[in-house]
Design goal:
The complex is a heterodimer. Chain A has 10 helices and 9 strands. By secondary structure, chain A is an alpha/beta fold. In chain A, helix 5 packs across helix 6 (125-139) and helix 5 packs across helix 7 (154-167). The relative contact order of chain B is 0.13. The two termini of chain B are 24 Å apart. Classes of the chains: A alpha/beta, B mainly alpha. Chain A binds chain B through residues 15, 18, 21-22, 24-26, 28, 75, 78-82, 94, 96, 98-99, 102-103, 105, 107-108, 112, 115-116, 119-122, 124-125, 148, and chain B through 1, 4-5, 8-9, 12-13, 16, 19-20, 23-24, 86, 88-95, 162-165, 247, 250-252.
Chain lengths: 255, 253
């Protein structure tokens, strides 16, 4: 039961500030020695020396302020980016719910987008066709399914994206703030879907600012502050620690 | 993801590209013929009627070089900025990035194949007819050309993530390369001192091969081999650059 599916060992991540070269060849060539030196020195540290494990079947929350590196953590888990130091082990398939519907094209219909999106996320064509009806049904799009995506509302897009991702049946689901969209009813449905996924033994990592969601869904929580893990373990205690820290900064600012 | 799955995905993405291109256009796929034809018409007007080129069947001569060139030029321009235009896919999914490049090149290839009937039409108008050797020569030529485009696409698209200037530069380079390729002139009449520039160009043997194939029904294995070797070398070079750089894309986009 307590097998670790994600293990971070002393993981650090920094970004080199590449803006000088991305900014254009001209400024790069003119100031080459200085730029190269600056690039080496200007590391933007996001995470420093993080070690933690996520166990099979649990719902794990990552909380913290904007910009502390929560999304970076998810990207590391999805191996979209590499860590600068340390070691990350991930067992099983990962479905990144990082910003839904990446790869959707506004001129294609819902039907066409489902097929492309699901295949980008790693399904075979046969799997998609087999699950097609279930995907459409869950998304509640009805007859809109044959309309081009550009006429969809943002809620409809989120529903479609969520439906496709959860149908890829991954071992690990990464959820980044997506539950903030959709109406009350759909949010409820998403939560049900996530708990069902979790009951079936799937592992979920959630990044959210909605403490209600975190408390109702998650088994454990990790609070990131100042590049480090500030607290990990019990959801209530991590959430209240984070909330207190937030209130204190607010109070400081008001003085 | 295994190979079969990737191929399936490639097929689906190529289909998507083609669909998107003509989704809202009434005349649909016909536009893919209109574009190269318009080009051919302009060049015909300039070179045959104004500059009075003495090449016989000039329009036929022209399109046999121009159509394969357009595959090269259009795909390369699209590919150079492909990672930037598909930012969200790179940052948020584990999609093998090369599939995006392949789909864009295949898309160009499909349009090239769609323009072959136009070549046949012009051939018939000139009182000639297509040759059976096309059945071997045409598929054979697709391979080296594909490799040349892929190699350069790997190279340019990877570097373009770091130096965004490149996508503008590529447009200019392609303009220059167009005139350094025997498209509006035959490769036989080039002055000696310029020959080196034309033959340093990877597309030159490709265009010569296509032209021999279309116009003379001749498939010269030597030009094909040169094209293939060029393609393999460019692919190897492009891939090694791509492999070195690609893991940083998600951070930079």
């Amino acid at each position: 039961m307590t097998e670790a599916v994600i293990a971070f060992e002393n993981v650090s991540k920094y970004y080199l500030l590449y803006h000088q070269i991305v900014g254009g060849v001209k400024s790069f060539l003119f100031h080459m020695p200085r730029v190269l030196k600056e690039m080496r020195d200007s590391k933007l540290w996001v995470l420093k020396d993080l070690s933690f494990e996520v166990y099979r079947g649990e719902a794990f929350a990552i909380i913290g302020r904007n910009g502390v590196g929560k999304s970076t953590l998810l990207q590391l888990m999805a191996s979209v980016i590499k860590c600068s130091a340390g070691r990350i082990t991930v067992k099983g398939t990962v479905a990144p719910l990082l910003g839904l519907g990446s790869g959707f094209h506004p001129d294609l219909t819902g039907r066409e987008n489902i097929i492309i999106n699901a295949m980008i996320l790693g399904m075979t064509k046969r799997e998609v066709l087999r699950k097609f009806d279930s995907i459409v049904e869950f998304s509640e799009l009805g007859e809109f399914i044959d309309q081009p995506l550009r006429i969809y509302s943002s809620g409809m897009l989120a529903r479609l994206g969520f439906s496709v991702v959860t149908h890829t049946e991954p071992d690990i689901l990464l959820v980044d703030e997506v539950l903030a969209v959709g109406d009350q009813k759909f949010r409820g449905k998403c939560k049900d879907r996530i708990s069902e996924f979790s009951r079936k033994g799937g592992t979920i990592i959630i990044v959210s600012h909605d403490m209600g969601t975190v408390k109702s869904i998650c088994d454990r929580a990790m609070w990131i502050e100042n590049h480090h893990i500030s607290e990990i373990g019990d959801v209530d205690s991590a959430v209240s620690g984070y909330m207190t820290a937030c209130r204190n900064t607010k109070a400081d600012n008001n003085e | 993801m295994n190979l079969r799955q990737n191929l399936e995905l490639l097929f689906e993405l190529t289909k998507k590209e083609i669909k998107i291109r003509y989704k809202n256009a009434f005349l649909g796929i016909l536009w893919s013929l209109a574009n190269p034809l318009a080009f051919a018409l302009v060049y015909y007007f300039v070179f045959k009627l104004i500059m009075r080129s003495r090449i016989e069947n000039f329009s036929l001569f022209l399109i046999t070089g121009l159509f394969p060139w357009q595959w090269f030029a259009n795909s390369l321009i699209l590919s150079t900025s492909i990672f930037i235009s598909n930012k969200s896919l790179i940052k948020k999914t584990m999609l093998p990035k090369t599939v995006l490049l392949l789909a864009s090149i295949m898309n160009g290839g499909v349009h090239f194949l769609l323009s072959v009937p136009v070549v046949v039409l012009f051939l018939l108008l000139a009182g000639k007819s297509p040759s059976l050797i096309w059945l071997v020569g045409l598929p054979a030529m697709l391979i080296p050309q594909f490799l040349i485009i892929l190699g350069l696409s790997w190279l340019f698209s990877s570097i373009n993530v770091f130096f965004r200037d490149l996508q503008h530069l590529v447009g200019v380079l392609i303009q220059i390369a167009f005139w350094l390729t025997p498209i509006v002139y035959p490769h036989t009449g080039i002055p000696k001192s310029f020959k080196i520039f034309v033959f340093l160009n990877p597309m030159t043997p490709v265009i010569i091969s296509y032209r021999q194939l279309f116009l003379e029904g001749r498939f010269d294995i030597r030009y094909w081999c040169i094209s293939l070797i060029t393609g393999l070398l460019l692919s190897a070079a492009g891939y090694s650059v791509y492999r070195k750089l690609n893991w940083k894309f998600a951070e930079l986009l």
